[in-house]
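ok trying again, last paste got cut off:
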Amino acid sequence: MMVFKLFRAELVRSILLLIRYPIEFIVGLGILYSLFMGLFLGARSLVQDPRTMGSSLDSFVISYVLWFFVISALGRLAFQIQEEAQAGVLEQIFLNYPRVLVLLLVRCLVDFFESFVMVAVLLVLIMASTGRWITLTTAGLGQVILLFTLTVVGIYGFGLIFAGLALVFKRLGQLGAIAQFAFFLIAYLPLDSLALWLRIVLYCLPLSLGAQLIKLVAVQHFDIFSAAVQPKLIGLLVNSLAYIFFGSLIYLACERKAKMDGRLGQY
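nice, full thing came through this time. structure:
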C-alpha cells in the first residue's frame, strides 16, 4: 500500500511538472529529434545505395531510442538528488522516507512510463520524417516491449550507482555525460563483428545484449523464445537483475557513507 501511494504521488508530481513546465518537454523532444535527423541526413549522404540505407535504418532508430532511455536513467535520478540537495530538502526526504531506495525505485518506474510516452512521440516523428515505418506483429510487439522492459531495468540499476555517487559527492561534473556518450557508442556497435573477448565485455554491460535482441525481433523478425535466441534472453534477464541488485547495494553503501559523514544537509 505504501509503495502504491508513493507511485501515485510521484506520478501526480511528474504530471503536474509536465503541465506547469511544458516547454522543457517540448525543447527536450525537439533536441532529440533534431539530433537524430542530423545523424540520419549525415549518414544518408555517405551511403550511395538506398537499399542498404533502408535495411539498416530500423536498427539505427532502435539504437537511438534505447540511448534515450540511457540518458533518462543515468541522468534523472542523479539530477533529482543534486536538485534536492541544492534546494535544501534532501535531508527532509530522508527523515520522511526511512527507505529512500524504495522511493528511488518508484521514481524509476514513473520515469519509465514518462520516457515511454516521450519515446512513442519521438518514434512517430522519426518514422514519419524518414518514411521508414517499423512493422511488427502482435506477438513481435509484445516481445519488443518485454525486451525493452528488461533492458531498461538494467540501465536503471546502473543509474542507481550514479544516484549514490551524487548523494556522496553532490556534483558529478561531466561523469554522467561521458557515460551517456559511451553508451551511445555501445548502442551502435556491430557486436557480431567484434573480437570474442570484447563481445563478452560488452555483453556484461547493460544495453548491449538488449539492443541486439530487440534488433533481432524488430528488424529480422526472430522469435526470442526459439532455441537459438533463448540463451541470450536468459542472459539479458540475469544481466538486468544483477545490475538492479548490485546497483541497489552500491547505492545503499553510498547512502550509509553520506549519513556517516553528515552530508545529507550539506551542498
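cool. The CA atoms of residues 191 and 199 lie 6 Å apart. The chain has a mean pLDDT of 82.
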